[in-house]
Amino acid sequence: MENKIFISIIAVTFLFAGCHDTNGDSDSKNKKGGKMKYEVNKSEEEWKKELTPEEYRILRQKGTEMAFTGALYKNHDKGTYVCAACGAVLFSSETKYESGSGWPSFYQPAKEGAIDEERDTSHGMTRVEVVCSKCGGHLGHVFPDGPRPTGLRYCINSASLKFKKE
Fold first, then answer.
1. Where is the active site (predicted)?
2. Which of 47, 68, 79, 121 has a C-alpha 20 to 30 A away from that of 31?
3. Per-residue model confidence as pLDDT tens digits over 77-111
4. Is residue 19 part of an annotated ligand binding site?
5. How many other CB atoms are there within 10 angstroms of residue 163's CB atom?
6. Is the preceding peptide bond at 149 cis, omega within 30 degrees of 0?
7. Could you give the dihedral angle defined by the CA atoms of residues 96, 135, 61 and 82, in that order, rounded to the nearest 10 degrees?
8. Alpha helix (H) residue ranges in the chain
9. CA distance linking residue 43 with residue 113, whole number of Å
C-alpha cells in the first residue's frame, strides 16, 4: 500500500512539473531581455514603456484577453493586422472569419514567415503558441479546426494586434 501511495505522489509531481508555465529558456535570452533569434530585441523595461499594460501582459507575459471582449473581435473592415509591438504584418482581413471562439480568428498568416510557432504546455494542456516572428510577441494559439483551405484556426488576442484599414 505504501508503494502505491509513493508511486502516486511521484506521478503527480511529474504531472505538475510538466504544466509549469515558463517564458522561455534563459539561455536563449540576450543581455537586454529579448530572445536573440528575433530581429527586434528590447529589454522588458523598454517593452513596458512602449506597450499599454494590457498589451504588455499579453505580448510579453503570454496572457490572454477575455473572450468576446477584444476590440478587433467584431472588426469586418478590409485591411491588414500588424503586431502591436513591432508593426510587422501578420494577418489579412481576407483570411479573417467568424469562428465563434470569442477572439479574432484567421485561417492563415499574411505571408510565410510572418509568425513562429512554439510548443506550449502551460495550463495542463499541449497547444501550439503563435508568436510574431519579428519580435517574439505572444499572439495566441493555432488549432487544427479551422475552415478550408488550410483547416487551421489562428486564435489571436486583439490586444496583440493593430489594424491598418485599406
1. 155 (nucleophile)
2. 121
3. 999 999 999 999 999 999 999 999 999 999 999 99
4. no
5. 17
6. yes
7. -30
8. 2-18, 44-50, 53-59
9. 24
Alpha-carbon span 25 to 157, nearest angstrom: 23
Which CA distances in Å does 161 have to 32, 101, 117? 24, 17, 17
Asked whether residue 86 is marked as a ligand-binding residue, the answer is yes
- Report the distance separating Cα 163 and Cα 78, nearest Å: 9
From 68, 72, 116, select the one nearest 90 (Cα to Cα). 116
Q: Give Cβ neighbours of residue 15 (< 8 Å, ≥ 6 apart).
A: none
Ligand-binding site membership of 135 (annotated): yes
Q: Is 155 a catalytic residue?
A: yes
pLDDT given at position 36: 56
Residue 26 carries which side chain, given as an amino acid letter?
S
Q: Which three cell numbers stand for residue 123?
A: 495550463
Q: Please pick, among 155, 156, 159, 161, the residue that the annotation labels catalytic.
A: 155
Q: Residue 131 CA to chain centroid, in angstroms?
A: 5
